[in-house]
Amino acid sequence: MPEIIVFIIGLAAAIRGADWVGSAAVKWAKQQGVSQIVVGATLVSFATTLPEISIATIGGLINKDPLVALGAVLGSPLVNLGVILGILFIFSRRRPSTGYYLRALNIFLVTCLVLLILSFYRPLGNTVSLLFIALGIMFLVLEFIIGKRSIGSAETALNRFEGLLSLFSFTRDRALLLEFVLGVILLGVGSKFMVDSTISIASLLKIDEFFISVTLVAIGTSLPEFITAVNSLIYKRESLSVGNLVGASVIDITLGTGLATLFKGATLSYPINLYIFIPMIIIGILCLAALWKKLPLALVGVSLVVTAAASLALFSLQTVF
After folding, report:
1. What's CA 19's distance to the chain center, in Å?
2. Residues 209/198, Cβ–Cβ less than 8 Å
3. Which of 147, 153, 212, 268 lies 20 to 30 Å from 10 when distance is taken between CA atoms?
4. Per the CATH hierarchy, to which homologous superfamily does domain 2-316 belong?
5. What tens digit of pLDDT does each residue of 185-241 get?
6. Whole-structure pTM over 0.85, yes or no?
């Protein structure tokens, strides 16, 4: 089936493009003396969501198909927090620290609850989409400000020194700009291929486009987060991956949802809205339970994976049969 080949090529291009864009942005931020805390809390999380954000924008703006776009940004948190973070908790002995983790999860849970309530009364779009976009931007700005305030005096001096050195690195700046531009082009082309091939696959298999997007597209675009999680387990840097997964999920469900439905509204009717948002809320609560020291972290991890798997299985049965 050529559509599958196009989908795989588009996925590979989108992931590689997002990697180049994110890498260039992180390198540039460090050159300007921005703290690693700020870079991790904002740029890294945003970079890993670029495939979903691009699909949301292209699906909604160019293809006028918000359900494909919406499926990608709603399915990714299920995979990120349910499957990947669950696996991370199963094999890790380090509990997540409060602060960024707790703030992000609270925003995630409130957003899921709002989306669930809205889905019963009105389509997503127009003013609601703008509000979700604003919430996503506010989240990034908030973490940037908090991260800047948490920098120690020694790191501040180092950041200023690195910023001073960057004034003399004209060649390096050109290379970063080229990497960024090529990444944006590759990301855009790859995302367009993925959206088009998803619609074609759904048409050929006579399956709902939203289902393909929630499962196949969401799993595909979550590959960078999965690779990062495996790497963090190997090198004992679990906190970096945990923060990335939680932050990326917030960006997906706020900024991604807003962009997916901004140009054309979308309706998540009953019972699809329950299959999507109820498991998300349960997963968010389970993630909060990981902070409770009396509860084994591995048990939380297993519960997350089972919840995500059961949700996708029930959604698949309801859609296909």
Report:
1. 14
2. yes
3. 268
4. NCX, central ion-binding region (1.20.1420.30)
5. 887 788 788 878 887 887 787 888 888 888 888 888 888 778 778 877 887 777 777
6. no
